From TrEMBL, chain A:
Name this protein carries in UniProt: Eukaryotic translation initiation factor 3 subunit L
HAMAP family per record: eIF3l
UniProt record, GO biological process: formation of cytoplasmic translation initiation complex
GO molecular function: translation initiation factor activity
Automatic annotation (TrEMBL), chain B:
One annotated GO biological process: formation of cytoplasmic translation initiation complex
Organism annotation: Durio zibethinus (Durian)
Cross-referenced SUPFAM superfamilies: ARM repeat, Winged helix' DNA-binding domain
Source organism superkingdom: Eukaryota
This protein's encoding gene: LOC111285426
PCI domain boundaries: 48-206
GO cellular component assignments: eukaryotic 43S preinitiation complex; eukaryotic 48S preinitiation complex; eukaryotic translation initiation factor 3 complex
UniProt KW keywords: Cytoplasm, Initiation factor, Protein biosynthesis
GO MF term (any one): RNA binding
Protein name (record): Eukaryotic translation initiation factor 3 subunit K
Gene3D superfamilies assigned: ARM repeat, domain 1 (1.25.40.250), Winged helix-like DNA-binding domain superfamily/Winged helix DNA-binding domain (1.10.10.10)
Amino acid sequence: MATNYDYEEAPATYDEAHRQDLGYDPNFVPDSVKSLVVHLYRHIREKNVYEIHQMYEISFQTLSDRLFKDTPWPSVDAVAHFVDNDQVFCLLYREMWFRHIYARLSPTLKQRIDSWDNYCSLFQVVLHSVVNMQLPNQWLWDMVDEFVYQFQSFCQYRAKMKNKTEQEIALLRQYDQAWNVYGVLNYLQAFVEKSNIIQILEQEKEGLEQFTATDGYDYSGGSNVLKVLGYFSMVGLLRVHCLLGDYQTGLKCLLPIDISQQGVYTSVIGSHITTIYHYGFANLMLRRYVDAIREFNKMLLYIYKTKQYHQKSPQYEQILKKNEQMYALLAICLSLCPQVKLVEETVNSQLREKYGEKMARMQRYDDEAFAIYDELFSYACPKFITPSAPSFEEPLVNYNQDAYRLQLKLFLYEVKQQQLLSGVRTFLKVYSTISLGKLANYMEVDDPTLRTILLTYKHKTHAVDSEGKVISNADVDFYIDDDMIHVVESKPVKRYGDYFLRQIVKLEGVINDMDRIKLD
Amino acid sequence: MGRERETPKEQQQVSYTVEQLVAVNPYNPDILPDLENYVNEQVSLQTYSLDANLCLLRLYQFEPERMSTQIVARILVKALMAMPAPDFSLCLFLIPERVQMEEQFKTLIVLSHYLETGRFRQFWDEAAKSRHIVEAVPGFEQAIQAYAIHVLSLTYQKIPRPVLAEAINIEGLSLDKFLEHQAANGGWILEKGHGRGQLIVLPQNEFNHPELKKSAADSVPLEHITRIFPILG
């Protein structure tokens, strides 16, 4: 296996080389690091998930902040003998080592490739041998999340061919399998299949399996690693497919997870947000605006209520960023599908504060409106990638924006098609019946054109769901009798059924908790 | 994967095998030829599989040098025929911009645009000019007519004959025959409009007759109720 990094390789920038040359000895292991590694190894062997989580989440971060602000951690070779040269521990350590590089420094091409090798080795071990560990869900999620992130980062990096050095190009040619899209997708798929997670979730619904109830942990002496990695890989697949622009398949990969309920995906805030963000975005692109609005609303409310508890967490910044992006996406959805009644009061007031003015302008459907749709979409969309191998022919170009430009173009195209709908809406809100001729007059179009506009309104507000059923998401609706338009206002219906069900389960939980209390 | 040993039995089940491949082993460059054959099969047998076609478009995305623009064009035509489902857009998301700039794809995008915005007259005019693209796929005309009727049924309780005629591109005697058939089998009713010609009464549904809309918003799926059975005791 290659060493962690190589001074002879061309580093990311000259500054990186400088910093990596000076004041950093990969073989120097401070006592605090030795202590952390030894204890973590012991906790893993003893399956003490709570302690593992504390060390992983807190100790590692604290040491990173204190000792390794802008240098790598000690090399795995330097710490291996503290942990009996345990293969799996070393792979896990290396995974965190590379994650630190990506987070605090800038990875060199060689480091990117070595990280890929490490993931391959680690995943092979989990997939093909019996791993007898219990790791915290946070850690397992972070692994999948980071894996997809590094893939995305590599595609972005690779697509900027223009200023690549000869060394970099040679390395790219030589290691063409690193971060290969087939490899990435097949590993995620392998986790889903080998863990049998889909069947487990199915059987859980019939009470034949326990998974969600134990948060994925195995209390019968086994390991949670493969199962939970399989579970999180479904979210990973959703994310990769969104990056490729394949929203339909992405949602299909997520299907086994019931997002109307709590689940293992909500046990880690990062996984919860990533799931809903991509679910919502995919539905937006599929024109299922109501589904997107509903989920964004729930997620944003949840973040609003709980973000204070994550202030010290290393994910806090990411949480805030995704929060802002989801508000932007919600603004877009509501401008295309004005169903404000679907949005909770708190979320709505936050939305008005951030995007109230922009939403008003978006609904005007002039050039300025398109500029704002462009701005919000570009801010909030995933970092789309071009998965194919680069062309090494001269002239070398940068094509890292191509994927994003295509998605943006198609999105704005859809927005343009809906251009006249807000005009129709305004009139329909005012009249209960109106003749085609009169409305055509008011809208300054001829009769045939008005008919096509009304057909467009109907088509765009009646989405086809995943089962092929037609669902109306029109806030104002109508029908035409010969040449008379009859307007129908849809009344908001409160969902009492769901509310009562939730309260019943909650009350039962409280009563159970109370029963468990023993009074002396 | 796929067909290593072709016994006579396996040969009969080719399309079944392809659907399985897509479900079980989709990220595999070796299945590309199977998927391409499957597209041609969908065209000739008038079947359709969005998942298989998306799988193929993804593989083309991963290996652009293996892309066949002819196959892609056929996929797009099939997607058009699936309207009102958004399949056409879903396919476009996976096709590189420079490919979409080619003449045949520009035409297909224009055709889609007309259908998305209810401009049926312009659609049929343009389709007539692009016979070579659309006539290559059997069932195209009928599929678009079905879509047209779908949108009209969302919108109209009663529709004037000329409007219908323009939307489904049938006129005169053929239209008479068509209307008779729909009246006999599809629940359509033909009326005499006030002096302006025939009015066609379309079948009632919850979209053109809002009073028929079941208050589905408050119904709770049985699955959710079964979760509280243990509590209710």
